[in-house]
Amino acid sequence: MLAILFCATLPSFSAAAENPAAQTPVIYESRIQNLFEEKCLSCHNSKTRKAGLDLSSPESILKGSESGRIIQAGDADASLLFQMIESSEMPPDEKKHFSKEELQQLRHWLNAGAHFREKVKTAPAVTQHDIIPLLHLRCVACHGGRRKEAGLDLRTKASIIKGGKSGPAVIPGNPSDSLLLKRIHAGEMPPPRKLVSASVKPMPDNERELLSQWIALKLPEVDAPRSEEETLVTVADRKFWSFQPPVQPKPPKVEGQDR
């Protein structure tokens, strides 16, 4: 009887021996980081960030891209990054395509939970830094400082929540019932008749999705300072004359003024 029981357990031991990776915890720094550096960072680094994607750090990986979250811990097949790499859409350079072994390593890391050596402190996926510039670009021409059509000011989180004559522009946590998003989806904002006069364009799908995510997350805000690469106006820009405060000039000395 003991011999039978022992034999019955042999397959599980042999399976583990055949696939030691299944028993080995995988962390980003052990192999995945090198893969990204070799194959991805030429297009997706802290400065280039094609499609808004930066793969140079755990924080930026978890932040995702213009399309939203790119990895799904515990499910490689549901991870956008894995889908793009597996289909050979990424990297675009054929010489940098992942081999079957490298693809399996990425799959294993994601399925195992996408762990990093240190716990990563992440900001919300979408914050006011992502949304307010979009609203300035698409909406503030009619709903801002000089003009507040329908009493609506979309320049700040507080004024967005306050809304206008029709009530709050958004309902935190409820994008589907938020009036602002409804009007945008219906093509009413910005109004087609004012696209030319206001020099604006309708909000594309990826921007609508970001706005929807921000509302769903209850309008998160972060106060963390941005790096110079992320700021619209850099320190060097601020040295330009138009950014300098006005100064009372000293009148020139005029010779012969006593005559």
Give a short overview.
With 259 residues, the protein is mainly alpha-helical. Helices cover 33% and strands 0% of the residues. The chain has nine helices and no strands.
List keywords for this structure.
259 residues; 9 helices; extended
What can you see in these coordinates?
- The protein is an all-alpha fold.
- The longest helix has 17 residues, at 2-18.
- Helix content is 33%, strand content 0%.
- It folds into 2 domains: 24-111, no CATH class; 128-222, no CATH class.
- Helix 6 (128-138) packs across helix 9 (205-216).
- It has helices spanning 2-18, 32-39, 58-63, 80-86, 100-111, 128-138, 157-162, 179-185, 205-216.
What is the count of structural domains? 2
Q: Would you tell me the structural class of the helices and strands? A: mainly alpha
State the share of residues found in helices, binned by percent. 25-40%
Give the overall silhouette: extended
* Tally of helical runs: 9
Order of helices and strands: HHHHHHHHH
Work out the number of β strands: 0
What topology emerges from the helices and strands here?
Elements: H1 2-18, H2 32-39, H3 58-63, H4 80-86, H5 100-111, H6 128-138, H7 157-162, H8 179-185, H9 205-216
